[in-house]
Amino acid sequence: MPVEKFQREREKIFKNIKQNGWNERLRTYTSVLNGDSVDASLLLMPWYGFEAAGSERMQSTYQQIRKQLGTTNGLLYRYLAQPAEGAFGICGFWEAEYFAIGGGSLEDARRLFERLCAFRNDIGLFAEEVDPGTGDALGNFPQAFTHVGLISAALSLQARKENRRPLRHRAETAEEAH
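-> structure tokens emitted (178 positions)
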């Protein structure tokens, strides 16, 4: 297929998300088009180069994610689930990486990363979920996704510390990606 066709489709998707994936009343991107709920995976938008981590929209989206899905000990729920699940380990590392790629300070990213590392077991492995009240491991164990989040966040923290662009974060703004 021609590259131009893919570029046109990419631009349509981008515009659709910008228009229908943003809830003006809540001042946040949403988990579904024309929705009113958030999902922690929205923190990956800057990682993919869709929106700069420091943009007004991402800052506001982050505030909604923290407000709706955050726990007092630095963990994040993936989404609001019924019945309640534990906080997903990878989501906390997404938050640390969001800070590292420009959504917060390097110090905020480092502090959160270290706090999250405290949820590992005695040999350094993480479960899929963490009970926010007790810190107990829940779900699948060991969980590769949590470890992938840890590694990615660590690489982005190191890149920021060295004033390098993170490996995965290719565009400062979505417009640069287009």
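The first helix runs from residue 3 to 20.
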